[in-house]
Amino acid sequence: MDFTVIAEANGDSLHPTTYQLIGAAASMGSNPTVICPNGTGAEEAAKINGVEKVISVNGDCFNIFDGGAWASSLSSLCGDIILISASPNGREIGSRIAAKKDIPVIQDVTSMTEGITVSRPIYSGKAMESLTITGSAVITLRPNSFEAALAENNAPINVVDQSADVKISIQEAINKASERLDVTEADIIISGGRGMGTIENFSHLEEIADTIGAAVGASRAVVDEWGMPHRMQVGQTGKTVTPSLYIAVGISGAIQHLAGMRSSKYILAINKDSDAPIFGVADYGIVASWEDAIPSLKSALSELQS
Amino acid sequence: MNISVLLKQVPDTTAKISISNGKVDEDSVSKWSMSPYDEYALEAGMQLKEATGGNLIAITCGPERTKKMLTDAAAVGADTLVHIPIEGVKDSTHIQKLLAAAVERFDSSVILCGKQAADTNGGSTGPGVAELIGAACVTLVSEVKFSDGKFTTIRPSSSGIEKVMVDGLSVFAFDKGTSELRRPNVRGIMMAKKKPIESISSDDLGVALDSSSLVVNSQSPPPEKPAGQKFEGAEHVGEVVLKLRNEANVI
After folding, report:
1. CA A16/CA A244 separation, integer angstroms
2. Beta partners for residue A247, in sequence order
3. Do B221 and A132 touch (CB under 8 A)?
4. Is the N-terminal amide bond of A116 cis, ω within 30° of 0?
5. Residue B140 pLDDT exceeds 90
6. Which is nearest to B139 in space by CA: B147, A74, B131?
7. CB of B222 closer than 8 Å to CB of A262
8. Nearest to residue A300, comparing CAs of B234, B242, B109, B250?
9. Does residue A48 form part of some domain?
């Protein structure tokens, strides 16, 4: 089986998940071909260990994101097993390529072994599913689930011109410059729930987030009842997140919420109710009200940063 | 204008998922609901219908129980209810072919669906169907409007949001929308109960559900986490922060 990795970009460089996609292919004993849409990050990709070659694809269609156009441009360059990030854009391109090639697409895979056997969370993490793939397939990988490959390589770069018809156009872009770090991008998330008392008290979580470079998340209850933005919502009907550290403050841990954050690497829960279900998934639990715990948390973290 | 909404019935997000014999036990699911993002697609479908005087077609693939959800869709205003009976878990490629054939049969101008279903969490259906019918697709949208023969929609961008325009056959996959979901009134519920459900088999649609190269080995509960360390009282915060640095190496 030959593996193709479709690189995910972040601005002008590669998104960290691209290193994980290549690491995942390498762990299967493959030297993948890496496709860089619009050529973004091609030179960077050529330096990543395990990469056999990089295909830098140029085309006008990459000026805006149209999953259909991107898939049309990239599809013919792909091999048997196509790895792509389980980001919203990755899922869309992956589904399109799979439908075009009439092969299965398996989304949001968190582990992959010889066979090829993969597992993925279903019901937002309330269960896991193991699947075996016997032919070609598109597999999207959940960010932060696979070891990243290191970069000390020097693979060749082929440049290909291949555009496709774009069917959509951007009428207007509305920037939200003040927007905080997105929960799906953050390595540390601090989330608040109803236990925070009022929406104003989230300012304390924001202060901590600023100290440690974290994103601020929220439970469904406070999004629905206090009108916090939906993009902050972690859980089954919000974002599924996998940060290195998830700090849950005043969140009881409804099954809905756990579904969205239980695969975080480490979980710290702060809740005054010792029986709160959140403690069932926490690596570290502190039974205390946020009023008592947050000032000490703030000072302990700033001390570490200085 | 024919507006098709693709709906999926899933275990309610509050329902417990139990496993028996290496499979999710569907019989033990306490409540089945319309997948949450599909509800926003349906609401947007109703708004498009009202704005254009169109016909709203609700389509689902699934076992017998899914007809109840179609009736629920009729209660808020769906005009035509289409059930494609299938049993068991199918490869998403198969589902996409069935749905694509159905939307073509009803000569749909626009197709609305949720960005992903609350059970498989895949997000393959909207873009996959779009590919099969040669349509444009915009995902994670929060609203869709129609004017001068074109659709405009809002989707997130790396720096905020953007207004996207599409001309021609389009699929829109919804995130949580900006509109309040309408609730059915008593009359709507009564009328919906009498609304016929059109059943169209995969044979009728001309879709061969050939064998898949994908084999489901097992389904299992999520891996148990070893019990964590629990501390009573805020005076332990400093100690825990040091553990986050020295044991977990995450700060």
Report:
1. 14
2. A190, A268
3. no
4. yes
5. yes
6. B131
7. yes
8. B242
9. yes
Whether the per-residue pLDDT at B5 is higher than 60: the answer is yes
A103 with B93: Cβ contact below 8 A = yes
Q: A44 near A61, Cβ under 8 Å?
A: no
Q: Which amino acid is at A92?
A: E
Are residues A68 and A154 both part of a single domain?
yes
Output b/e per residue, B180-197; b: 16+ Cβ within 10 A.
eeeebeeebeeebeeeeb
- Cα distances (angstroms) measured from residue A193 to each of A45, A233, A280, B84: 40, 10, 17, 41
Interface predicted TM-score (ipTM) over 0.90: yes
Q: Are the beta carbons of B9 and B32 closer than 8 angstroms?
A: yes
pLDDT band of A177, cuts 50, 70, 90: low
* C-alpha–C-alpha distance, residues A219 and A111, integer Å: 27
A108 vs B225: CB contact, 8 Å cut-off?
Answer: no
In sequence order, which residues have a C-beta less than 8 Å from that of residue A224 and are 6 or more positions away? none
The structural architecture, per CATH, of the domain B2-205 is: 3-Layer(aba) Sandwich (3.40)
Strand (E) positions, B63-159? 80-85, 110-114, 136-141, 144-147, 150-157
Q: Which residues from chain A sit within 8 angstroms of residue B228, using beta carbons?
A: 267, 279, 281-285
Q: What angle do CA A57, A58, A64 make, to 5 degrees?
A: 105
Convert the pLDDT of each residue in A39-67 to its tens digit: 999 999 999 999 999 999 999 999 999 99
First-last CA distance in chain B:
55
Residues 154-173 of A with CB under 8 A from B: 167-173
- Chain B within 8 Å of A124 (Cβ-Cβ)? yes
Domains contained in chain A, number: 2
What mean pLDDT do residues B196-205 have?
Answer: 97
Residue A95 to residue B225, Cβ atoms within 8 A: no
List, as one string, the DSSP characters of B199-242: E--HHHHT---PPPSEEEEEEEPPPPPPP-EEEESGGGHHHHHH
| Residue entry with tokens 């693939």 | B61
pLDDT at A13 over 90: yes
Q: What is the mean pLDDT of residues A262-278?
A: 95
Provide the CATH number for the domain around residue A46.
3.40.50.620
Judgement on whether residues A155 and A196 belong to the same structural domain of the protein: no
- The answer to whether position A171 is within a domain reads no
Evaluate if residue B89 carries a pLDDT over 70: no
B181 in contact with A, Cβ within 8 Å: no
Distance from C-alpha of A93 to C-alpha of A193, rounded to nearest angstrom: 35
Interstrand relation of B9-11 and B32-34 (parallel, antiparallel or unpaired):
antiparallel
What residues make up the domain containing A22? 3-161
pLDDT tens readout for residues B58-67:
999 999 999 9
pLDDT of residue A126: 87
Q: Are B113 and B171 in contact (CB under 8 A)?
A: yes
User: pLDDT band at A274, cuts 50/70/90?
Assistant: very high
Q: What is the DSSP letter of B72?
A: H
Q: What percent of chain B has pLDDT over 70?
A: 100
Amino acid present at B242: L
